[in-house]
Amino acid sequence: MNVLLIGSGGREHALAWKIAASPVLDKLYCAPGNPGIANEAECVDIEVEDHGAVVAFCAEYEIGLVVVGPEAPLVAGIADALNEAGIPVFGPTAAAAQLEGSKGFTKDLCDRHNIPTGAYMRFNNAPKAKAYAREMGAPIVIKADGLAAGKGVTVAMTLEQAFEAIEDCFEGAFGEAGAEVVVEEFLEGEEASFFCICNGINALPLTTAQDHKCVGDGDTGPNTGGMGAYSPAPVMTDALIEQTMEQIIKPTLQGMAERGTPFTGVLYAGLMITDSGPQLIEYNVRFGDPECQVLMMRLKDDILMLMKAAADELLWTMSARWTDEAALCVVMATKGYPGAYKKGSAISNLEAASAVHNVEVFHAGTALEADKIVANGGRVLGVTALGATVITAHDQAYMAVDLIDWDDGFCRRDIGWRAIQREK
Ligand code: AMP
Ligand code: GLY
Questions:
Q1: What is residue 242's predicted lDDT score, i.e. its pLDDT?
Q2: For 250, phi and psi rounded to 5 degrees?
Q3: Would you state the torsion angle of the CA atoms of residues 218, 424, 410, 283, taken in this order, to the nearest 10 degrees?
Q4: pLDDT of 37-67, one tens digit each?
Q5: What are the two backbone dihedrals, phi and then psi, of residue 71, each rounded to the nearest 5 degrees?
Q6: What ranges do the domains of the chain cover?
Q7: How many other C-beta atoms can be found within 10 angstroms of the C-beta atom of residue 195?
Q8: Is 326-423 assigned to CATH 3.40.50.740?
Q9: Cα separations in angstroms, 46 against 16, 17, 26, 36, 281
Q10: What's the CATH number for 2-93?
C-alpha cells in the first residue's frame, strides 16, 4: 500500500518512522515533511490547503491511505474531500473535528451526555465573561474557543489575570479563535493524556502519556505545544482507564454518532485526575506532539494496520500491544520559544545523539541549508528514548541531548519528574 502522510512536525516524523517499518507499506510520501522525515519518506511539495491538489496526488500515486497528523487540515475539511473522492483517510471529518476545533462545542456535548468536566459558560463579549469569572472566583480558566496552537488557554490564579486574558481574547490576541471565550472551573489534580483509535462508536484504547506544557523547569512559565512527554503515565491505573472509557470516551462517540457526525481517527483526551475521578479538560482529534513520539516508541504492533482498519471500519478486529518499557521525549526548542525566536541557527552532532542506545531523534522545525541541519521553528527536535524505567529512559534521552551542538537551543531538564519521583 502507498501512504500519504500530512504534516511536518515531530509527531509526523515519529509516525513516518513507525509507518516505514510496516510490512504492508509499499511507498510512503509526506507533504510537506521535514529533513528527518525525508529519511523515511519521499517528501512532496503539495499545498495541503488545496484539497483538490491532495486528491489529485492521491489518484496519480495510487494512495491507499492518507494519514493526517495535525489538527488544522482536519478542521479545514481535508478528510471530507478525501472521503468524497473515495480515498481512504485516517482522521475525522470537519464536523467531527469540532471536538478540538471548538472548546464550546465539546463542553456542550459533555453537558448533554453527562461527561465529567469542569463547570463552564460560553461568551461572545468581555463584560459578561468577566461577570461570570467574578461570580466563580479565582483560580479560573479562560479559553479561546478555537484553535490557538496550544496557546489559547490561561489558568488565571487571580481575577486580574482572568480579566486580562478575557480582554486579550476579545481584542484579537488569538484572531478568530478568540471571538468566543469559554470560562471554566479550575480543576485540581494530576494531568494525563489518554489516546484511542476510533471509528464511529468503536474505540480501541491505546495507552497513556504525560505531557509537560510549561516552557520552564518545575512547570513554570507560559504554556507551549509541549516540551516533553513520557509514556505510560503511572497515574492512569487500569481502573481509571476503564472509568475513562465508560464515562468519557464511549458517551462522546455515541453522542457524535447520534448527531450525525461520527468520529474516525485518534481521539486524544486531556484529563485531570481529580479526587472525584477523571475529568475531561479537552479533546484533540489527532495524536499529541510530543506524546506521539513516546507512543510510537512503545507500540509493538503495526500502526499502519491499525489506522487502515479504522478507515475501513474493521477496527473491532484489532488490538494494540505496548512494550512494558517506558519512553521519554525531551523537546529541544529555539531560545525565545514560545515567544519570538530566530530561525537559521546551526545544529550539529545529531548522528552521535541518534547512536545512543535506544534513542531516536525526531525532527520537528528543522531545515536543510547547504546540506547542514538548521533550526527552522520553535520546537525543533524530539530526543526520545526507551528504557526499563522512566529514570533509565530519562538518562538515555538526556545523554543524547547533551551530545547535540546547538548554541541557540534549549530544553527542560526535568522531563518525567512526576514519574521519577514515584519510582524513587
Ligand atoms: P488545553 O489547551 O485545554 O489542554 O489547556 C492547556 C492547559 O491548561 C492544560 O494542559 C491544563 O494544564 C490547563 N487547564 C486547562 N483547563 C483546565 C482546568 N479546567 N483546570 C485546570 N487546568 C486547566
Ligand atoms: N502536546 C499537546 C498536544 O499535542 O496538544
A1: 97
A2: -60, -50
A3: -70
A4: 999 999 999 999 999 999 999 999 999 999 9
A5: -80, -35
A6: 2-93, 123-179, 190-317, 326-423
A7: 24
A8: no
A9: 17, 21, 20, 18, 35
A10: 3.40.50.20
**What percent of the chain is predicted at pLDDT more than 70?**
100
Which cell goes with 416? 518525567
Does the Cβ of 249 fall within 6 Å of ligand 1?
A: no
Superfamily of domain 190-317: ATP-grasp fold, B domain (3.30.470.20)
Q: What share of the chain is helix, strand, coil (3-state, %, to 5)?
A: 35, 30, 35
CA distance 58 to 409: 37
The 3-state DSSP class for residue 238 equals helix
* Predicted confidence (pLDDT) per residue in 124-147, tens digit: 999 999 999 999 999 999 999 998
Find out whether the beta carbon of 101 lies less than 6 Å from any atom of ligand 2: no
Q: Which three cell numbers stand for residue 203?
A: 474505540
Report residue 361 as a C-alpha cell: 531523534
In the numeric block, the cell 471571538 is attached to 179
Q: Ligand 2: which of 291, 331, 379 to mutate, judged by most atoms within 8 Å of the beta carbon?
A: 291
* Amino acid identity for residue 200 in this structure: G
Centre of ligand 2 from the C-alpha of residue 227, in Å:
9
The pairing of strands 366-369 and 372-375 is: antiparallel
Residues 302 and 67: their CA atoms lie apart, in Å, by 14
Contacting residues for 414 by C-beta, under 8 A, at least 6 apart = 212, 217, 218
Write down the architecture of domain 123-179 according to CATH.
2-Layer Sandwich (3.30)
- Ligand 2 centre distance from Cα of residue 391 (Å): 23
**Which grid coordinates are listed for 318?**
484489532
User: What is the pLDDT confidence band of residue 222, given thresholds at 50, 70 and 90?
Assistant: confident
Q: What is the pTM of this model?
A: 0.95
Q: Looking at residues 223-231, what average pLDDT do you find?
A: 95
Which amino acid does the sequence have at 106? T
Residue 408, C-alpha cell as written in the block: 541557540
User: What is the DSSP track for 181-237?
Assistant: EEEEEPP-SEEEEEEEEEETTEEEEEEEEEE--EEETTTEEEE-S-SEEEES-TTS-
**DSSP category for residue 37:** G
Expressed in angstroms and rounded, the spacing between residue 143 Cα and the centre of ligand 1 is: 9
